[in-house]
Design brief:
Elements lengths: L1 H22 L5 E17 L3 E7 L2 E7 L3 E14 L4 E9 L14 E7 L2 E9 L5 E15 L6
Antiparallel strand pairs: 1-4, 1-6, 2-3, 4-5, 5-8, 6-7, 7-8
């Protein structure tokens, strides 16, 4: 009888562990409304490089670089959690096509998760409401303030 009980307890423990691993921890999601955004593109001048070599007594040189180069795009985004009455100022840097960074559509609602000083916004469309669906966009939280109600 003890052997069978040990096997049942071991099986029950395995099922509980498998459920925790497969289901994962529940995310603490909030609903945010996107506010205005700002996109700043940067550029810089590449340093020039001169390479020289000698061939048959003659010196040859080539210069490369020295022209303008595109830098990263800096995005600043405002969002508000209307339920909690909190406004967030977010930022991200879109250096590459595959960066998890984009502007949000003003007025649209999104599900978001806050971890430390990072906010992940889920199911974001890149390039407007008909654009490519991005699973999540990741932003650094710059500022958190209570929403101020407008007095009329």
């Amino acid at each position: 009888m003890g052997f069978i009980m040990d096997k049942i307890i071991m099986l029950a423990s395995f099922l509980v562990l498998a459920t925790v691993i497969l289901c994962g921890e529940d995310k603490n999601l909030i609903t945010v409304v996107a506010g205005p955004s700002n996109l700043e593109s940067s550029s810089y001048t590449e340093p020039s490089q001169t390479h020289c070599w000698t061939y048959s007594g003659q010196q040859y040189c080539t210069t490369t670089g020295g022209g303008p180069a595109a830098g990263p795009d800096y995005i600043t985004q405002m969002v508000a959690d209307l339920t909690a009455g909190t406004a967030y100022k977010l930022t991200c840097v879109g250096r590459f096509r595959w960066s998890k960074c984009t502007t949000l559509i003003t007025g649209d609602e999104y599900q978001a998760e806050i971890t430390g000083r990072t906010m992940k916004v889920f199911n974001v469309r890149v390039g407007g409401n008909q654009g490519r669906l991005m699973k999540e966009a990741k932003y650094k939280i710059l500022d958190i303030r209570p929403l101020v109600k407008e007095v009329r």
